Every structure is written in structure tokens, then in C-alpha cells.
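Subject: mismatched residue count in predicted assembly?

I count 924 residues in my input, but I want to confirm that the predicted structure covers every chain. Input:
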Amino acid sequence: MTTVHTHDADAGGGASGVENFDVNDASLNRFDLVREGARRDGVEIVHYAPRFPAPGTKAEKRVERSIALLLTLSGLLGFGFVAAYIWWPFHYEAGANPSKLYTPLLGLGLGGSLFLLGAAIILWAKKLLPDEIAVQDRHDGASPRDEQALTGATMLNLVDETGIRRRPLLKAAFLLPAGALGLAAVAPLVGALIKNPNSPEPILLNTGWNPKNNNGNKVRLTREDGTPIRPEDVSVGGQMTVFPGIPHGATNVWADSPVLLIQLREADAQRLRGSIALAMANDPESRPVEGMWGNFVAYSKICTHAGCPASLYEQQTNRLLCPCHQSQFLITDQAKPIFGPATRRLPMLPLELEDGLFVAKSDFLEAIGPAYWERP
Amino acid sequence: MTPAKTNRRRRLDLAKVPEATAQGIDERFQVATPLRRVFNKVFPDHWSFMLGEIALYSFITLLLTGTFLALFFDPSMAETTYDGSYAPLRGIEMSKAYETSLNISFDVRGGLIMRQMHHWAALLFMAAIVIHMFRIFFTGAFRKPRELNWIIGLSLFWLGLTEGFAGYSLPDDALSGTGLRIADAIVLSIPLVGSWVATSLFGGEFPATEILPRLYILHVFLVPGIILALIVVHIGLVVKQKHTQWPGPGRTNHNVVGIRMFPGFAAKGGGFFMIVFGVIALLGGLLQINPIWLFGPYKTAVVSAGSQPDWYVMFLDGSTRLMPAWDIHIPLGDGYTIPAIFWPTLVLPGLLTVLPMLYPFIEARLRRDKQAHHLLQRPRDVPARTALGAMAIGFYLVLVLSGANDVIAEAFDISLNATTWAGRIGILLVPPIAYYLTYRICLGLQQHDREVLVHGVETGIIRRLPDGRFMEVHQPLAPADAHGHGALDYAGAPVPKKMNRLGAIAPAVRGFFFPIEKPATPALPPAATPVSPAVPPQQLEDAGTQQH
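Triage response: the counts match. Full output below for your records.
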């Protein structure tokens, strides 16, 4: 198309155009119809010009060639994707081998193909579609007052028709099924999901170290593979993650039970003993927390802040760091939180030796892990 | 000839098929008028209007890749022993969810790229939402009549965050489980009912065996369904209320100036979809993300340093890290606790949901503004709002950085505790400083616009006067008065500040290796360039007379 269509927006517009316009007038070209259609839709095409007024110029050919090149490359990459998807080895194998390139090849093929296709379409739209400025009326704001009044009356009449206002008996009676069915809608969801944390047993207080999970016997400290632990297994200043020696004790079934067993250096152990003695002296009512065996101490590994394992052990500073929110606990002061958002100590697991093997004297004396409203 | 015979003899005229089909459709559905309205709908064009499109296209990519993943994923928490292709994990006990995630990564043809595309698309989806929200806020596009769409947009952010968190939890790797463990602690912290809600959601004490199947149905059905519905309403409202536009020549509060939907706008949109999709595919294929096989299955006793959530949750992780250890104890009966974690993880998001949703109404009330606005504002023209936005971004950035304070501490060899304190102090200091600086910058930019309108554009030409003084020659933008001052009013549109914006310098010659056209001649011959009061370009005159 070589004609340059330009049109100055006429302020009036005018409904007269609609009547005078004859769609079947043979002298009108197709764009006249387009413009009239737009006008009837409240759109004025005020500027409309081909990008290349003289067809077949060097510049136009160049744009065409660029787009064709992009489309060709896109197609080739797309086929490349399909070919790689089918024929490239995809099963994981250790070491350096072609299967490692499977995903990158798919990405290059698919991504490259889509990207170039998109680039081609946009280039087409920007360089070849006619340059255009169209102006549309907004027709914003509220509906005409009349319309509002008519609709309002219809809605109010709707209420009147039911007569709900002068039939208070029905109004009251209707509330019954409304309420009942409202509850009925909620009941299955709440009723089926709800679970009492305290019944049949207080699950937030019970951990795998409770003897009742071991037929009343004290629970051994074990490694992840279930082997028990002797004092000589932990070096001085060393630590070890231990689990209750009960079935599934090292799995997520007993997610509240992992414990960090630490053998303190002599001076640090003295410091901890002093801290415990001081706490007992200050508050004789407090539940006994002395749970050390020799220089060994065991703390719950579950952070009292958000429940991550507080397991990064800084041997030199005697701190335990939780990597989630950086709470830090001082081992030599009953795992008191000394930095970060945690507010409570890591509970201590009372230790004992039975037949030369570590066991828990009892369950933790308080709830482990994050705090909650009624936490004792 | 009988009509029946004619019918039998009629041949299929291929040229007439489109017309006949169109006729047939219109006879049944009467669509000619509404269809043409759709074709002719005018959209304004500006680069900043495509940010929301990125979110939309990412979401479509998420639906496509997510459907593929769902065909191979099993959210069961039942224990199983891995026996797949990835040798390092063979023989390890893990949940079915983690096993099937590994299978998708190693044993499903093209499964890994789908997983990685899904994850990248999720990150891009949230990023596009946030940037799009900035655009809406700073240009005042949320003002009447678009308050509802602003609220829907904010809801989409929070739904996207929920959806992303659920998806992050599903593979049941070490990071997933750690995230869920923290979620459990957050739910536990709700006053009065925390332990009941947590136990009910998880179906027992953490982690129990219910949470993944429940998150799964949320992730693949409920939340995406709601997101999809809200996106439909969101875009429907944009169509119904028509897009906002920047002030400029011929643009008023009562019209939309742009291009018609078909073919121009649709082609650009469709092309852009392909580009977004393509970038996600490139990211998914070339850049590894969430290599779950390196993390191992979730075990409560195992965590690694540098555990970070996806970026869009990081600000909440940051707020949790910065929160001082302030439990509230209520000495009634046996004693009750409001854990410190309650404030940064539940109260803060609550505030961050409600306050922005109310913002359009608060601003309208404070400005006593009941008008409908369809023209966007330049951020500099509304310094208080822009400064508030900068303040919010400052607040947000401190939280995001604090969510990575351990990584920062390690990378830059800073004390970890110092970075926490920097965050705690920064969260109080950065927002007011951001507010003040932004406000001053806005005023400065406003002033400079006025200055150019009055005195003209700096030409870079220094003239020495006979008495030895130097002065710079300015090019006025409009005929000047007796004092040499221009008479243009500021119209909310960008003011040209360089001579080549006025056509004083010829446009660059086109062509990459060699010119493909003859260089255009400058609008003004070089000798005549900027000295005399030039005729103002047409668009300036228009802009100057357009008030809104």
C-alpha cells in the first residue's frame, strides 16, 4: 500500500457521519471502512502512514531480510531442541560426559528459538506495520443519572417484591438455615483438620527421650545408624549429634529429638557447673537442670527460636550458632541465648551412664523448640 | 432447475470460505460489532507498561511447566529408598516426594529443564509483580478509579508468595524442610491458638505426614486457581477502565492515545511473550537453580550455613533475623507467651498487606481528591508520595539484605553480629534518610524543569561579552518576553533538556557496518544552530496547552 493516510482529528466528530456513510459505496477503499468502523467505536485514527512509503527500497528489503533471518534461526534452533530432546543422551552419569550438556542444549534450543521468534515478531511490528496514532474516547465516570435511578429502583423493588421487610417472621426464620448451612460449610474442613495438641498426649512436650517410648527403660544415646555411644567416643572439646535409641529414633518421626552431645574442656565444664549452681541457688524453686555427666553435656539441637538445628559449633568460643537466623547460645552458661532473635536456652538433656553407655536420665524437663502461647 | 439440484452442483469455492465462515459465526453469535471493538481498542505505549506483562507471561510459563512436573511428582511423605540414576544418593532413605523430585531431575527426559524453568519463572513472576507495583505506585496509577485493581495486585503478590513458598516446600529436600520447620514455628507463635493451628495444619507434631499432600493441592489447584481468577479480573479491569497514559501532545484525561490492539499492540505483546518465555527457557537450561540433589533429603538434625529462602521471602527472613529477643510473658494462670517471632513474621506482613491496600484511599483523603485520574504523574511532581515509596523501598531493602546477612558477613569478612546490628540500626535510619533525600531530589528536578521552561536549554555555547564577562547561550523553548523568559507552563510531560531533543542535531545515521541511507540534513544549519529564539517544536506547543 503506497497511499499515505493522514487525517486530522475533527473536534466535532458528529453523529451525522454515521448516517451519511454508505458502507456499500464502491468508491470507498477498505481503509475508509476501517476508519469508519474505528470511528463508530469511538476511535479516531489521527495518523496512519506506511513505514516505507516507496515500496522495495533498500532499507525495506534490509528489514525484511533481518526478520527472515531471525525466523530461520528460530526455526533451526527449534528443530535443534527437538533433535536434542530425542537423541541426546539424557540419563545422569557420574563424571564428565555428554549427558551433562542435555539440559543446557535444551535451554539453548528452546530459549533461543522462542527469543528469536519474539524478536522477529516485534521487529515486524515496529518496522513494517504502518506508523499509527489512534485516539479513543474514555467514556469514564459514572453512568448517567437516569440509568442509576432506574437500576436503583429495580434493585430496591427486588427487596420489596420479596416482602422481607414487612415479614419479620420469615426474616428471622431465614436466618436459621443460613446460619446452619454456613456452619455446615465450615464444619467439614475444621472438623476434619482439627487436632488437639494435648490429647491423647501432649505431643509438643513428649520427645523420643521419654522412657515410655522405650517400654519404660531409659533411652540410649545413639548415632544415626543406631550404635550406642561411650564417653570415649567424643573427644575433649568435641561434639556429636545423637538420636534416641528407639525405633525410627533418627528419622523425622522423632523430629523433636536430635541432641548435641558435647565433651567440654575441664575449665569450660567448671564454668558450666558454676552456672548451674548459681541458677539453683538463685531460684531453688526452679526445676533441676543439672544434667551433666562428668564434663559431658547434651543440649536439644532444635533452636528455641524457629526450630532449625542450632548446630554450628564454635569450639573456641563455646557457642552454638543457628544458621537460619543466627541465634547464638553459650554452651558454658546452660546454652543461654547471647545474640540474635532466640529468647530461651536450649533445653538440657539429663545424662547418665548405664553399662558404660550414655542414656538419658529422663525426657527433657521442658518443651523443646519454638515457643507458643501456652508453653509451660 | 430446482434449488436442490443447484445445491448438489455447488462446488466448494475456497476463496469464499472465510467470508462464509464469518457470516455463519455472526448469524449465530452476532459478534461483528463487539469483535471490531476489540480490534480497535486503543492502548497507549510506554516501556514501563510492559512490566505487568512480564508477570502475566511468567505465570503462563508456570502453568505450562507446572503441569508437566505434576505428571511425574508424588507429594507423598512415605519413606522409600532411593534407587535412581544419581549414584551419590542411592540407598538413602527419603520421602516419595524427594525421590520423585530427583527422578524428575535425572530420569525424566527433559525433566530438569522443566523444573528449573518452573523455578526461574516463579522468581521472575514475583520480581515482575514487585517492579510493576513500583511503576503503579510512583506514577499514581492506583488513584481513582483504579483502587480496586491496586488491591487485587497486592493480593496477587501475597498469593504469589504463598504459592512460591508451597512450591519451595514440595521437593522435601533439606531446604524445603528447613523452610517448613520455620513455618511451623511461625504458626505456633499465634497467640491463643498457635499450637492448635500448627497441629491441625501438619496433622500432628512437625513434620508428621500430612503437610506435603496438603501443600500440594494448595500449590497445584487452589492458589493458582485464585491467582488465575484474579489475573482475569485484573486485566478485565484494565480493559474496562482503559489504560492510563503519560501526559503529552493531545493526551487528556478523557482520551487514550496510542495504537489499536490489532495488529500493532497484539503483535508486540505476542512477541514479548515469546521473548519472556525464551529468556525463562534460557535461564532454565543454562543456569542451575535449586540443585536439590546436593542438599539431600530433609532431616531435622541437618542444616547448612547459608540457608536462604527464595528472594521474595527473604525480606521476611530478614525481619526475623533483626527482631530482638523480646518474648512477651503474660503472668496469668500458668503464664502465657507471645513469642518474639510473632511480630516480624505475622504482624509485619499483616501491616504490609493492609497499609498499602488502604494507601489510595488515605492519599485521596489527605489531598481531598475525588477526581478520576487517567494521566500518570511523573514521580518528581509528587515528592511526598515518591519519598514515601523510596522510604518503603529502603525499609524493604534493609530487610532483604538482612535476610542474607550471613552470606554478606562471609563474603566481605565482616563480623556476623555486626551485620545484624547494622540491619537493626539501618531499619530505623535508612527509611527517614531515603524519604528526605528523595524529597529533596524531587524538588530539585522540579525546579530544573521550571528553569528550562523559563530560560531555555543549555546549548554549551559560551559567549564572551565585550566587557569580558562570559555567559552561556540558552535556547528558549518558546517565544520569550521582554526579559528573555519563556512563557511555557509545565504540563506534566518531560521537558527537553538537550539540544538534540530539539532537532538541532541530526539523527544518527542508520546501518550497523555501513550507512543504509543518506544522512539526514540537520533541522538547522550548523552556523544558525541555537543562537536565535527558535520556533518551538510542535509537540512542545501541544504539551504546553494541555492541562490536566
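Chain A has a mean pLDDT of 89. Marking this ticket as 'not a bug'.
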